[in-house]
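User: Hi! I have a protein structure encoded as tokens and I'd like to know what sequence might fold into it. I'm fairly new to this, so please keep things simple.
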């Protein structure tokens, strides 16, 4: 009877989506609905995100009042759209998309010469690639916490890594990795293994998932295919070195002392078919001894492949049998693991089982003991291997000793205590390591907690990337959005706070405190060699067929009312925005010429095109800037 009343109340508040739900979803939502109904009777606004549900628990709320700012940034990978999305949390509002690998219509990414240079072009000036598949975003560290300098994201399709400057929230460099396909896991280091003064990120590690012939000659014999693990310089973005391995790489994690990087391997079988890839009962978590690898490179103990000059050291099992000189250590973990994550106490890496219902806890001090010859086998570094549920994929942490693992098949997040799991594994069967389970909607992949993979993990919020949203949003045809759910983890029990639809498919994300980044409000003219620093420098400069058009913008006008070109001219148009106020951005579009881009305050951008169509073309401002925005135009006359 009571339940019926709640239902009616929710329906009357416009949340009629319940009728799309199945019973499993109903069970997961009951709490949120109850609180919503109560709140409504208080006269408070009915928050569709069911934020009030959390109020009775940890006190975290996802609904912000108009004008209120979020307390956390989230950096979400964009998946197929090849960008990085900036969210505010706990509200879940999307604030910005940062284009990286794919063209973007707002910014003119892939249109301007500057963005094309970052993205990479073919000999004819067209973009080298226009598709991408981003999975993992991670940011630079200092003293075990994010330092607000950079974030990196991978492109799995074309094995590229993009860097984002977190002062301007723009992509400034993209590097394509040689010798690898399916570059998947990515993680920055957190310190230097040799120099203790370097307590910040200087390397980014990249896992190559698909094995290919080296060099890639197209041989069909898959027994000759190999995968490599790569190290990219965080500043120059050049590939420093690679490691030839047995098996493949999937996800990547790094230790807080900088000594170890690791990747989980699901294809130790080195199979080309999925049946072969799951034929062994156990695969591996592969550890890299960073200092030894770099010493080997220095000593010239490397090969190169094909056109690539990147040194490749030998990390295969056969060549690394003596732990005291080994570059790598293969720790055996159950069948086809996925996800490897570093606990915020800096002690453990946790490998999720995927095809095994377990998580494996590996103690980093023991891995280092193995490399020192003090542990008889690398497998002895495992301190727990405990059952969690079906399809464990990724793990996050609350900084209070608890881990949260997604269970893809069970559609749950399981909260478990790492110390209790270790005790249980050691034989204390009274140790209850599972603390809580929460149904999520549905089939979660990644999850991450606020500050999770830092020393400052704060155990407030947990976001879960659910691969299927089914009945959670209005139906829009066969393709549904993904469902990013927010969970309050501040109490013992997890509390579901909100659903957010996102365009497919983010995979991974990080969440960090807003004070860790210091975004700039305007650009600096001096940072652009081409800048037109004064409206008086505007004009058309001709050098045979090569023509340079210089323009500035200042609301509500461009510095020239018109400019004249001749048919066949090879034009470079340079536009500097001289407006100095934040957010006073202008756009520049040329009809029929496939040109549209923006210039932010004190930014300079350029485009190149051939003036192959004669006529009058009204170049106009595409970004609302002024009451006279519609009047903000210039005439391009091609004779
Ligand atoms: Cu699990 Cu690419 Cu991180 Cu997707 S991977 S979920
Ligand atoms: Cu300038 Cu709109
Ligand atoms: Ca396997």
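Assistant: Happy to help. Inverse folding works backwards from shape to sequence: for each of the 639 positions I chose a residue that suits the local structure. Here it is:
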């Amino acid at each position: 009877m009571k339940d019926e009343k709640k239902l009616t109340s929710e329906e009357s508040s416009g949340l009629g989506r319940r009728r799309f739900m199945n019973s499993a979803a109903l069970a997961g939502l009951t709490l949120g609905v109850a609180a919503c109904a109560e709140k409504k009777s208080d006269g408070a606004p009915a928050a569709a995100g069911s934020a009030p549900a959390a109020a009775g628990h940890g006190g975290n709320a996802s609904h912000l009042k108009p004008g209120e700012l979020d307390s956390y940034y989230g950096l979400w990978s964009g998946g197929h759209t090849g960008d990085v999305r900036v969210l505010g949390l706990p509200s879940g509002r999307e604030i910005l998309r940062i284009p990286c690998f794919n063209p973007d219509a707002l910014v003119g990414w892939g249109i301007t010469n500057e963005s094309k240079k970052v993205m990479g072009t073919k000999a004819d000036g067209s973009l080298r690639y226009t598709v991408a598949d981003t999975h993992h975003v991670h940011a630079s560290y200092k003293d075990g916490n994010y330092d607000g300098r950079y974030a990196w994201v991978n492109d799995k399709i074309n094995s590229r890594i993009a860097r984002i400057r977190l002062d301007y929230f723009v992509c400034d460099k993209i590097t394509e990795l040689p010798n690898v396909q399916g570059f998947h896991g990515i993680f920055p280091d957190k310190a230097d293994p040799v120099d203790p003064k370097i307590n910040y990120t200087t390397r980014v590690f990249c896992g190559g998932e698909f094995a290919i012939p080296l060099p890639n000659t197209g041989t069909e014999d898959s027994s000759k295919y190999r995968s490599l693990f790569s190290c990219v310089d965080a500043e120059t973005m050049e590939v420093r070195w690679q490691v030839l391995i047995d098996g493949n790489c999937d996800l990547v994690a790094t230790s807080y002392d900088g000594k170890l990087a690791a990747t989980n391997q699901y294809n130790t079988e080195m199979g080309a078919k999925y049946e072969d890839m799951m034929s062994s009962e156990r695969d591996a978590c592969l550890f890299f001894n960073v200092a030894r690898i770099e010493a080997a490179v220095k000593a010239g103990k490397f090969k190169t492949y094909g056109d690539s000059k990147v040194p490749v050291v030998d990390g295969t099992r056969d060549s690394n049998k003596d732990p005291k000189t080994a570059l790598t250590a293969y720790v055996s973990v159950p069948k086809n693991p996925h996800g490897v994550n570093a606990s915020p106490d800096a002690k453990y890496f946790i490998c999720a089982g995927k095809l095994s219902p377990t998580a494996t806890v590996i103690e980093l001090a023991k891995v280092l003991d193995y490399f020192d010859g003090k542990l008889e086998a690398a497998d002895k570094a495992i301190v727990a291997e405990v059952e969690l549920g079906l399809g464990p994929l990724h793990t996050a942490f609350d900084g209070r000793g608890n881990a949260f693992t997604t269970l893809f098949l069970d559609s749950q997040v399981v909260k478990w205590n790492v110390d209790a799991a270790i005790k249980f594994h050691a034989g204390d069967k009274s140790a209850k390591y599972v603390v809580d389970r929460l149904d999520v909607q549905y089939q979660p992949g990644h999850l991450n907690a606020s500050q999770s993979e830092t020393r400052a993990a704060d155990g407030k919020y947990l976001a879960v990337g659910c691969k299927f949203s089914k009945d959670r949003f209005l139906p829009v045809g066969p393709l549904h959005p993904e469902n990013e759910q927010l969970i309050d983890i501040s109490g013992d029990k997890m509390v579901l706070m909100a659903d957010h639809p996102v365009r497919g498919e983010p995979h991974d994300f990080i969440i960090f405190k807003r004070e860790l980044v210091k975004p700039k409000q305007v650009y600096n003219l001096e940072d652009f060699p081409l800048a037109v620093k004064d409206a008086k420098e505007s004009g058309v400069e001709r050098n045979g067929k090569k023509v340079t058009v210089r323009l500035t913008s200042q609301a509500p006008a461009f510095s020239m009312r018109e400019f004249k070109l001749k048919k066949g001219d090879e034009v470079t148009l340079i536009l500097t925005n001289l407006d100095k106020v934040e957010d006073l951005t202008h756009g520049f579009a040329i009809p029929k010429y496939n040109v549209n881009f923006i210039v932010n305050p004190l930014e300079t951008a350029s485009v190149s095109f051939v003036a192959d169509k004669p006529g009058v073309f009204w170049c106009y401002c595409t970004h609302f800037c002024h009451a006279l925005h519609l009047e903000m135009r210039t005439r391009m006359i091609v004779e």
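A useful reference point when you look it over: The chain has eight helices and 39 strands. Feel free to ask if any position seems puzzling.
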